[in-house]
Design brief:
about 0% strand, mainly alpha
Amino acid sequence: METTQILISSPIGVLAVLCVVAAFFFLLAQISGAKLFNFVPPLLFIYATPVFLSNLSIGGQTVIPNSSIIYTGLSKYALPVFIVLMLIKVNVPAVVKVMGKGVLVMLMGTVGVMVGGVVAYLIVHRWLPEDSWKGFGTLAGSWIGGTANMLATKEMLDASEAQLGLAVVADNVIYLVWLPLLLMSRDFADRFNRWARVPAERLATMDAAAEMHVAEDHAPTMPQYLYLAAVVLGVAAIGHALAPPIAAWIADASPAAAGIFSETTTRILLITTIALGLSTTPVSQLPNSTAIGTALVYVFVAGMGARAEVSGLTDAPAFVLGAFIWIFIHGAFMLAGAWLFRVDVHSVAIASAANIGAAASAPIVAAHHRPNLVPASILLALLGYALGNYLAPLTGHLARIAAGQ
């Protein structure tokens, strides 16, 4: 039997390939200006390309391996780093000031994601592998917060690479349908606002708050990068040091909870909590943390793709069917929140995008609906990031319990 040879196997070579793949599709989107990337985000290509590079054998050779110290290193070290980088920018008071009750509608949408995930899993789980509740929890991470939460939840639930692949496929299929609906909703603003009984002064108040909240933007200095590195690596180190004894203590105190609060879960939740605490301090003023964190996320996604087995995608039809049921329930909760809190269609669309598409999509929807809400849309998405690491694993476990698994 012919042994498959690997063209690039050194750790630094593998990491270089992952970075090149991530950079290439953003460069392509920037140079080409293709509208395709508004509806099929670079994330899908960044995940799918390493899948082919590590699984497709041509002439007995694959480009990169399915297994590498780089992939495990990204999970163990890059994951906590980008969690801290992204969460220290969460500014809850600012987003509440601008979006007002739109924040409550987003939280209704988050509840819709949780309820929808459980209901959809109950409907389709009979056609899926028994561990698919982990894939649903992983997708819940993306739909509550964003890609960073999806990856963190995958680690917390110890989901397989196949389940991550299904989550990525379902996420992007739904995105192709949901984003156009959010964009088109602007054309029905008057009718929607009358149905939701939106107060006449809401839009004027929101616009005024948006004008007042103008974030200062300045070039980072060298010392600020050092401060950022010290904070981020310090928090990650604390998480790595404290997670084992805390997880062991939980296991001793409540053996039933040991399966939920594993060492990985405990580490990620601990790091998340510390980072959110730091977001209320001057640490949040350190520049460029979100951009650096997002860049790491995409390299991480490429690494997850390289580890994937294409055979696991045979369950995609049932998984995607569940995702469509799921997004319908989320939409119903969003409409209920709009009517209950009397919130305009612009805020509802942005709030849904902040959940389902996170920081990559919320600004697109905001720019289409009301451009002055773009900064607030990013803050709203970061609020989702803050919630995702707590609620997405919970969604997965609730789905498991509901299905009796």
